[in-house]
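A student in our group prepared the protein record below, which I am reviewing. I have pasted the whole thing underneath without changing anything:
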Amino acid sequence: MRTKALTSLCFLFLLCTCARAQSIDWDRFAAVTDIRATTPQELADKVTVGFTTDQDKAAALYYWMTQNVAYDTKLYGQIAGRKNSKPKAYTPAEVEKIYEERVTNTLKRRKGVCEGYSRLYQRLAQLSGLECEMIAGNARGDIMMPGSLGIGHAWNAVKIDGKWELLDCTWGAGTVNEKMKFVRRFKPAYFMTRPESMSYNHFPKEEEWQLLEEPVGQEVYLERAAIGGGFITYGLYDLSHQNYRLETPRRKPLTIGFTSATAPETLYCVNFTSRKQIPCSVSKTEDHVSVNLPGTSVSNMVLGIVDEERELLLSYRVVGK
């Protein structure tokens, strides 16, 4: 019996960077950045020495990965160029050899695409005594519109104190700029990401890895609101308006609500259609946030909600009834 090898066509879109990861003191892991090793076992031992809890071990490995592995844009281009070619079949033994080579090459070259990041993290976590899985599926970034599953992607789930947690070393490491150059930018938001938030831009092939009591179906995923890096940074969930297409009476006030423990009280509304900022106000009660648009701001448009750094949280296509 022959098996097809997994080839994830993954890419880093221009993502700006939930909240749970932000409570971690990442300075505690700064010393692991300069650790060097020639084998996964040696690296796992060196990175996690002195850390005893599951969370500290998982965080230390995540920090090392995001500080040391660069996204390989050249390799991505080669893979993308072969995406329409007929897939080759491999025996199980050949598949295992390929997977081992990807772990070895990512460690040796300090470069890789999403599968390299995910397989190396999985190996390091397992060698450190943690249960860890690589998750295959699709993901969509800031510049990808709703209605698309997105690109092929890979990320991880690691068990911390008996509970599975999600993380994405690839998107946690940085971005690719307009010149197709990798720019390292550490994003703690992609470590122990809230599953409810992750389900807006990561769609695993196996629904169990959504880690949700009620998994999101493909049809629902395709219709969901567009999100930006701020959505993950602030760990948004429980949206009042789930779908990207938002029908509302024109010239009538509109309130968009969501839950977030860390969302700022200062947010701005942008009409991306006219490329202008529009009036809105924000009210916050404990962890519930309401963005209120007066009737004069409501029209047919692509609406964006951004923070002070102009990082996008949410986007909708507003359509008047």
Observations:
- The first strand starts at residue 3 and ends at 4.
- Residues 245-320 form a domain with the Immunoglobulin-like fold (CATH 2.60.40).
- Confidence is low (pLDDT under 50) at residues 1-19.
- Residues 270 and 277 are 4 Å apart (CA to CA).
